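Example S7 (C-alpha cells).
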C-alpha cells in the first residue's frame, strides 16, 4: 500500500515534465516520426543542456548557502549526479552480455563531456562570437578538476 502511494506521488510530480517532453520531442521509434531522428537528437540535447544549466545553478546556490566551495560541490555532487546514470546504463548492458558496450559507454561519456562540454562553448567563443580571440580560463581549479576526470 505505501509503495502504491509513493508511485502515485512520483507520477503526479513527474507528469508535467513527461508531458512537456512528450509534446516537444518527436518519438522517432514510431514509423510516423522515423525520418525525424536528427530533430529528436537535437531537441533531446537541448533539453539535457537546459536541465544541466538548472542543476549547476541549484548546486551553486546550495553550495553558496552552506558555505561549500564551488569546486567541492562540482567534484562531489555534480560529478556523482552525472556518473550514476552512466554507471546504471553500463550495468544494464553488461547484464545483457554486452560488455564492450558497457566499457565504451563508460569511456565515451567522459570523452564526450570533455570534448563537447568544453570544446563546443570554447569553439563558439573563438570562431563565432569573437573571431580570433582566446579563451581565458578564470577558474584556478579547472586544471585539477580536469585531471581528476
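Recovered sequence:
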Amino acid at each position: 500500500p505505501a509503495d502504491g502511494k509513493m508511485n502515485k506521488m512520483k507520477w503526479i510530480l513527474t507528469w508535467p515534465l513527461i508531458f512537456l517532453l512528450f509534446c516537444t520531442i518527436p518519438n522517432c521509434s514510431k514509423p510516423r516520426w522515423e525520418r525525424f531522428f536528427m530533430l529528436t537528437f537535437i531537441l533531446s540535447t537541448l533539453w539535457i543542456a537546459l536541465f544541466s544549466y538548472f542543476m549547476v545553478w541549484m548546486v551553486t546556490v546550495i553550495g553558496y548557502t552552506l558555505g561549500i566551495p564551488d569546486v567541492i560541490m562540482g567534484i562531489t555532487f555534480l560529478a556523482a549526479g552525472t556518473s550514476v546514470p552512466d554507471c546504471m546504463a553500463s550495468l544494464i548492458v553488461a547484464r545483457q552480455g554486452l560488455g564492450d558496450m558497457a566499457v565504451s559507454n563508460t569511456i565515451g561519456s567522459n570523452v564526450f563531456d570533455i570534448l563537447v562540454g568544453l570544446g563546443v562553448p570554447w569553439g563558439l567563443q573563438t570562431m563565432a562570437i569573437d573571431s580570433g580571440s582566446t579563451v581565458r580560463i578564470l577558474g584556478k581549479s579547472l586544471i585539477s578538476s580536469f585531471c581528476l576526470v
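Notes on this example. The CA atoms of residues 105 and 143 lie 24 Å apart.
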